[in-house]
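[Q] Does anyone have a clean structure-token version of this?
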Amino acid sequence: MTYLILRFSDLNLSDSQALFMGITWVILTIGFEFIAGHYAFGNSWEKLLADYNILNGRIWSLVLLIEFIAPLLSNFILRR
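[A] Here you go.
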């Protein structure tokens, strides 16, 4: 999806801009998850934090990692 957004929007991002985009997406995702998860859906902070425990089979951290590197990787592919 990130590749398509960058390709059709005609953005020419530097590597630092692509990394900034990735970190911004991750921060917004985590912020939404914790704010909505706690205040709108009533989940405890412990339950929300448990989703980040990769040793218990929770892979949400990997999703965030992919979200972080996707703009840089897509930018690299588009420059080729």
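[Q] Thanks! Anything notable?
[A] Helices lie at 2-9, 15-40, 45-50, 60-79.
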